[in-house]
Amino acid sequence: REGALMGLNRREVHRLLTDGYFAVNKPKNWTSVQALEEIKKVLRKDIPTHFQPPVLKLGHGGTLDHTATGVLAVGVGWGCKLLPIFLHGDKKYIAAGRFGIATNTYNETGKITEEMKYDHITEEIFESTLQKYTGKIYQTPPKYSALKYQGRRIGDWTREGMDIEMKPRPVTCYSLKSRKFRLPHFEIEVACGGGFYVRSLVHDIGQALSSCAHVTTLHRTKHGPFMEEDMLEHSQWN
């Protein structure tokens, strides 16, 4: 049975289950919690019972939207104590967006709340506007988010019909550049600090350009010390 453990000995397996931390590529349409549950199933299945601790504790270093993909920092056992470092660490994203349509979630999953013209937006104006959102800025998080209010996610309160006032808060955007621009679609690359919402950024950019916009796809390429080349694809979860 130990031969199925990729050559790991008892000590190495124990360290994985008590001190582990690594990065995975969160699949699209999975919540971050679902990704952890899948990893836990794999660890339970692949590792003999007598190797496993009584409690197998897993955690992640920062929620990714369920339709988003990319780097998700995962901790196992004592490794979970390192996750606050990743939660507040620098992150990078590639986001695609669409002008002319706003949604209540600020991304492709929400209900359309507004439609506006966008043909007045040029690539030059777009790139100039991006520069206004670099550095330390104030940003209002979306009402559909994982932020907590009275112990529950604000997104859950919102879905139940409760209207919670979202206040602007300081965040940092280290760099922001255009990757593609072809109306009504665009693509940006964002490097930011903790607590930053790319969905709010895209929403704000749409308003700044006298139009509206929402995120159509979101992919995280960096999370704390982990880069894309470090993350394990779903087929590698073993």
UniProtKB/TrEMBL annotation:
Belongs to the pseudouridine synthase TruB family. PANTHER family: PSEUDOURIDYLATE SYNTHASE TRUB1, TRNA-PSEUDOURIDINE SYNTHASE. It holds the Pfam family TruB_C_2. One of its GO terms (cellular component) is nucleus. One of its GO terms (molecular function) is tRNA pseudouridine(55) synthase activity. GO terms for biological process: mRNA pseudouridine synthesis; tRNA modification. This is tRNA pseudouridine(55) synthase. Residues 57-198 form the Pseudouridine synthase II N-terminal domain. Residues 199-233 form the tRNA pseudouridylate synthase B C-terminal domain. Keywords: Isomerase, tRNA processing. InterPro entries: PsdUridine_synth_cat_dom_sf (IPR020103), PsdUridine_synth_N (IPR002501), tRNA_psdUridine_synth_TruB (IPR014780), TruB_C (IPR032819). Its EC number is 5.4.99.25.
